[in-house]
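Notes continue from the previous slide.

Worked example: a multi-chain complex. Inputs as given:
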Amino acid sequence: MDTVGPAKADLALTGEGADKTQALTYPRIDCRNVSVYYDDKQAVFDVSLAIHDRAVTALIGPSGCGKSTFLRCLNRMNDTIEGAKVTGDIFMEGENINSPDVDPVLLRSRVGMVFQKPNPFPKSIYDNIAYGPRIHGMVDSREDLDAVVEKSLRRAGLWEEVKDRLSQPGTSLSGGQQQRLCIARAIAVRPEVILMDEPCSALDPIATARIEELIDELRKRYCIVIVTHSMQQAARVSQRTAFFHLGNLVEMGDTDQIFTNPRERRTEDYITGRFG
Amino acid sequence: MSEHIVSAFTDELEKIAADLMRMGGIVETMILDSCTAVDRNNHDMARDVITRDPEVDRLEEEVERQIVSLIARRQPMAHDLRSVFSALKTAGELERIGDLSKNIGKRTLMLDESVPVAMRHGVARMARPVSLQLHMVLDAYATGNAEAAKTVWESDDDIDQHYNSLFREMLTYMIEDPRTISAGAHMLFMAKNLERIGDHCTNIAEFIYFQITGEYLIPHERPKTPNTGI
């Protein structure tokens, strides 16, 4: 079975209603001994962790701790950086995504990404969403495409706000709306995993709350990994939290445990504001 | 534990702990003094205990106010979170201990010289181990000693047994001389108040243990003599 690339028949995406305990029962991504080097400098050291499906996993840690670098391993975004080298194995559905046989473009349609700064294409709202399904050949007709656009915008909680102006440029939206547009764009290609790299750090508290509400909604269908500098945000939106420091994974556990009773002194010092 | 990067955060947590210790100190003497007042039939002392209670109430409010404000402004995590949670709950328990001691003082005012000395001694004898429980649990709080908190938690059964034996003793006085029934009834309530204070100390021990270790003490694992039906 071809496990890389969007499954065309799977219009239902993944099932709904999975609760938290079920969500934590099996991993979607299994990372083993992952190290990342930028030329001679090692940025991530031998990280092994499991990322669960239908759950939000938060990666936290001080600036330069390797959390964003690690996140970028999950859809091979480090391939695009000159001099970057990733070692170790990252299994999705039993397949090692670091294998040379894996097409990174198809991989990135399975593992969508949302960035710190909203980055809509300089196209209409409609085309921002339609772009991915079109190039991946996921739709056969205009009606199908319309349906995908509407469904994606609905899931991103943006449909009601933009349904009457789909032909306007994506960049005409507010910052928070643009970020939800980017999330809608990511889910339009029916990914299994959504990576978010500080998705709210450029947004005001109201727009942040809307994104967090959206993340909570998306968690029912997707595996979500979020890098955030806001510990409160990690505590609010995630079920699992991993703490990185100096390129090492210090501690990973249920979010409740990490924020009420961390096992490691370095985690405690960081989340209580005693670092350095 | 090292200090916060924002030093005012450390100062605020220390202020809460200091207010809590002050509350603890006041209620500890309230327990002892209320029972000394019973023992010596000293109404002035009983009235003095009663007048100290509003200060305890005020401190509880003060601790609560500081904690609400700290949560809103600093969003404490991990040990900090557990310590403000524990302080909030402990303040409530200390306030109740203050009320119960005040109540002993009020009942003392209803007794006169006719009450047999032996009955008075009974209540006074129970005050010592109860106030010691509080003293030890506050020490555990001040020193951050989880094992000391657990020791207090495990020894509440001694207080319960003391109460049961005092209960039986009071019954014998009342049976022997029905004129002591009125005083005996008051004294039974006093003894019950002391027994309740022991329970509040147990609760405080649980909060402190959680604050320090992040683990819960499980109530049904606490040593307990089978219920005597009292």
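Summary box: The longest helix of chain B spans residues 7-40. The radius of gyration of chain B is 19 Å.
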